[in-house]
């Protein structure tokens, strides 16, 4: 996400187009994920703004008989708070979201536990803008669903073996954007950020 002048309390989403199936031991088509988790990396600069960011995860519900058309009204999104205004970090940070013992907030603000094993899962990244202007930038890269069991952190392309890396222009077809999200392969370090 790269800011701009948009109205106060506007929510912008970066949403996976479709879903990711989390296979279990009984799935004939895929190897099971014993302890699935979503992994992604981010960098942010929320400067003096009052922006707030989060990740949302939901069990995917298709609209009618169309498998890749989500019925968003029927989906229960659970929120995982991420970043707050007034903070910045230009070092890539690894984030994990446990999908077997998922802890998130429902629409009523209640903390709940959900097990997404064996389910089709949708996810999206969100940012809401506060009243203050200032930097509102959040970069996300290398989104994966992996198995924590036997995970070798030197090579995390395991499990579903799908990584969304926005360093490749072809990966933007898998996401839907609203608001000011920009899908880019640009480097997040700007020349004016480097002290020479």
SSE blueprint and pairings:
Elements (H helix, E strand, L loop, with lengths): L10 E6 L3 E2 L14 E10 L6 E8 L2 E2 L2 E5 L7 E7 L3 E11 L3 E4 L5 E4 L5 E9 L8 E11 L15 E2 L10 E3 L19
Antiparallel strand pairs: 1-11, 1-14, 2-11, 3-8, 3-12, 4-7, 4-11, 5-6, 9-10, 12-13
Summarize the structure in words.
- With 196 residues, the protein is an all-beta fold.
- Helices cover 0% and strands 43% of the residues.
- It has strands at residues 11-16, 20-21, 36-45, 52-59, 62-63, 66-70, 78-84, 88-98, 102-105, 111-114, 120-128, 137-147, 163-164, 175-177.
- Strands 1, 2, 4, 7, 11 and 14 form a 6-stranded antiparallel sheet that branches.
- It is globular and about 50 Å long.
- The chain starts with 10 loop residues before the first strand and ends in a 19-residue tail after the last strand.
Summarize the structure.
The protein has no helices and 14 strands.
């Amino acid at each position: 996400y790269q800011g701009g002048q948009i109205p106060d309390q506007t929510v912008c989403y970066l949403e996976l187009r479709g879903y990711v199936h989390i296979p279990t031991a009984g799935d004939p088509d895929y190897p099971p994920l014993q302890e699935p988790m979503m992994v992604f990396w981010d960098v942010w600069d929320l400067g003096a703004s009052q922006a707030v960011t989060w990740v949302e995860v939901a069990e995917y519900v298709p609209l009618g008989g169309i498998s890749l058309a989500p019925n968003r009204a029927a989906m229960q999104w659970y929120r995982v708070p991420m970043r707050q205004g007034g903070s910045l970090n230009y070092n890539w940070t690894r984030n994990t979201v446990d999908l077997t013992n998922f802890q998130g907030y429902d629409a009523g603000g209640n903390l709940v536990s959900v097990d997404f094993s064996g389910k089709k899962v949708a996810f999206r990244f969100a940012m809401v803008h506060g009243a203050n202007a200032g930097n509102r930038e959040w970069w996300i890269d290398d989104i994966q669903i992996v198995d924590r069991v036997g995970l070798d952190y030197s090579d995390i392309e395991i499990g579903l073996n799908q990584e969304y890396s926005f360093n490749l222009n072809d990966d933007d077809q898998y996401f839907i954007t609203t608001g000011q999200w920009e899908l880019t392969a640009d480097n997040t370090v700007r020349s004016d950020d480097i002290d020479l």
